[in-house]
Amino acid sequence: MMLGFLLARAGVDVCVLEKHADFLRDFRGDTIHPSTLELMYELGILHDFLKRPHQEILELAGQVGKEMVTIADFRHLPTHCKFLALMPQWDFLNFIVEHARRYPTFRLIMQAEVVDLIDENGAIAGVIAETPDGIREIRANLTVGADGRHSIVRERAKLQIIDLGAPMDVFWMRLGRGPTDPAQTFGHVEPGKIFVMLDREEYWQCAYVIPKGRGEEIKSKGLATFREEIAALSPFLGDRVEELRDWKDISLLTVSVDRLARWYRPGLLCIGDAAHAMSPIGGVGINLAIQDAVAASNILSSKLRQGTPSVDDLEAVQRRRMFPTRATQRMQLVVQNNVIRRVLGATKPLSLPWFLKLFRRFPYLRRLPARVVGIGFRPEHIRTAVQERAE
User: Fold this and answer.
1) Rounded mean pLDDT of 285-294?
2) Parallel, antiparallel, or unpaired for β 268-270 and 264-265?
């Protein structure tokens, strides 16, 4: 959606396809990082964005056993917004659509599910989509796969996937928030268990991290046992776990960390999770995807106004975004293999690691994880000018 907005703003004819009738999918990426908020500022729409309902997170904390420590402090970032913003993804998508529709070259088609690619002599010339009116061909000088970690576009394009592995999956749920609950977002670590709580003001958005592939085993023990586990990790939620009335109230995210060896074919480019599925660690997936969109727009918009970008043009997008992709995934793998894997396999009480104790003694150290999470590696900036006047 962000790429469609940026290309339309640059005077390129764009058609965005969404397979659902609306954007109301729960537990999608809801964290809007300072790097993305900076892009909103550069586009001149930050003020409008901040009028929308959202929560602002100034710091991230973690609890190991009984010990609490602040891990990241965003208040020192060199950005206009020194916080993470939490906004339901459907609200964020609607916000982008609203601004994109001000440009006459932007078009959005809902209930259009891509089922195949149009392949002409090895070059992709568009997509085949199922719509309420039947099968439809949509042709384009460039087809962009931005359809997530289970991308039908990358599957049909037969692009090679490099699987980097993940030791965990995640149960997502929401629980009511009380007036006396802690006023911060934090993670709680106990032997064999990790529980993360995002403060959404009216409710907690919770993530219960489990060993890879253990979802059905945990379900087989019954919902009552699961609720007891949550209450044991966060006792103040004990009076609210009954809100989980059915396993339908809990979504299982199958975690994968992978990337394509090559993000493109003639006439085709993949970005976001379709090009590089990210772990939920740091909540950076949506922001990496948006950075991809900005880089693609910066590199390709002038080419698209002239016709079809060359393979070299598409390769330039991957080359630009490969370092931040690799660096972010490397960071996630280090955390997965050295922290999460050990915690999930632990049977004895855990103590606060020595390096986290340094965050207590030297608060300025909290600025480093804040920068890595909030800004990331090689942040992008808007380089394209408005080519068509907004309607």
Assistant:
1) 95
2) antiparallel
Q: What pLDDT digit, counting tens, does each position of 92-101 carry?
A: 999 999 999 9
CA distance 328 to 371: 12
Give the separation between CA 339 and CA 167, rounded to whole angstroms: 11
Q: Are 264 and 281 in contact (CB under 8 A)?
A: no
What residues make up the domain containing 12?
2-57+83-163+256-374
- 354, 290: one domain: yes
HSE (side-chain half, CA atoms, 13 Å) at 77:
26
Task: Give the whole-angstrom CA distance, residue 41 versus residue 35.
Answer: 10
Decide if pLDDT at 25 tops 80: no
Q: DSSP readout, 279-322?
A: -SGGG-HHHHHHHHHHHHHHHHHHHHHHSPPPHHHHHHHHHHHH
Angle at 247 between CA 242 and CA 249, to 5 degrees: 65
Residue 385 lies in a domain: no
Question: Is the dihedral angle over the CA atoms 311, 315, 317, 318 positive or is it negative?
Answer: positive
Within a domain: 73: no
CB 46 within 8 A of CB 80: yes
The model's pTM is 0.91
Q: How far is CA 70 from CA 166, 251, 275, in A?
A: 25, 28, 33
In the block, which residue shows the tokens 């993470």? 84
Number of domains in the chain: 2
Long-range CB contacts (< 8 A, 24+ apart) of 125-132?
125/267, 127/17, 127/153, 129/17
Q: Nearest 5°: phi and psi at 153?
A: -65, -50
| CA atoms of 336 and 199, how far apart (whole Å) | 23
The CATH number for 7's domain is 3.50.50.60
d(CA 144, CA 3): 9
